[in-house]
Amino acid sequence: MKDTENLNPAAKGIDAISVSDLLNLIHGEDSKVLDAVGTALGNIESAVTEAVSSIKQGGRVFYIGAGTSGRLGVLDAAEVYPTFGSKSFKAIMAGGEAAVTHAVEGAEDDRDDARIEAGAITSKDLALGITASGRTPFVMAALEKAHATGARCWLLTCNEIDKPSFVDGMIVLPTGPELVAGSTRLKAATATKLALNMISTAAMTRLGGVYDGLMVDVVPSNEKLVARAEWIIMQITGCTRDEASKLLKESGMRPKTASLMKLKGLTKEDAEKLLEQSGGSLRAALAS
Length: 288
Known about the structure:
Blueprint: H1 19-30, H2 33-38, H3 41-56, E1 61-65, H4 67-84, E2 89-93, H5 98-101, H6 111-117, E3 126-130, H7 137-148, E4 152-157, E5 169-172, H8 187-206, H9 223-237, H10 241-250, H11 255-264, H12 268-277, H13 282-287
Parallel strand pairs: 1-2, 1-3, 3-4, 4-5
Helix pairs in contact: 3-8, 4-8, 6-7, 9-10, 9-11, 10-11, 11-12
């Protein structure tokens, strides 16, 4: 039986203890997650390197999952565009959009649908299957299909398993048995969320989406994000809020472009050209 399906010895009598003791028990188990993720940092780094390579050649990163694992992939992929202005991260969810908010029975076992969904993956892309158990049929079938197209394929799992022949790399997060046996929405999900955060954030940072801890490619699609974009320009250039607002509008609502326009005295067109020549890096553009 897989580790995440085993009975956790710490859970004995869990239904008879106080709420306070129960919360402390959950907290104690959650504290093990960071160590589990820490053991996988080397492989996470390799996955990030391959993600950056795929995106640079015009490819995308596809998260593939079912149930909780799939929803975590959807969540992380959905946040990449507003945060980093990139549509390079996509999610394939067993059961489609309906399964994001409702359980779709049998979806995780549908190998045929997995192969259809994976048809969108090309040889330029990176496919990352997410399955706590390491055996979800939908995920494995989709990865096998993606591998056949020439895509680089990775598997993120919370159990020690043999590497499938169609997988190029693995991220193993050994979180162990859950307090509620098999409920991988607990430690396994937390570890998975942390790993996905690392992959998308590190990849987009390497691609120029972050400068000194600032999300310089943020998409200012609402009042809060417009204010954030203006603040980012102010932090980088030292200008006033009014000037930042003017620069943001002149740049086409792109804080990275606006900052370069101010610091280099460039037009929008010249700033965009310099950024393209600098691989999207504001730091490199400023140093050129």
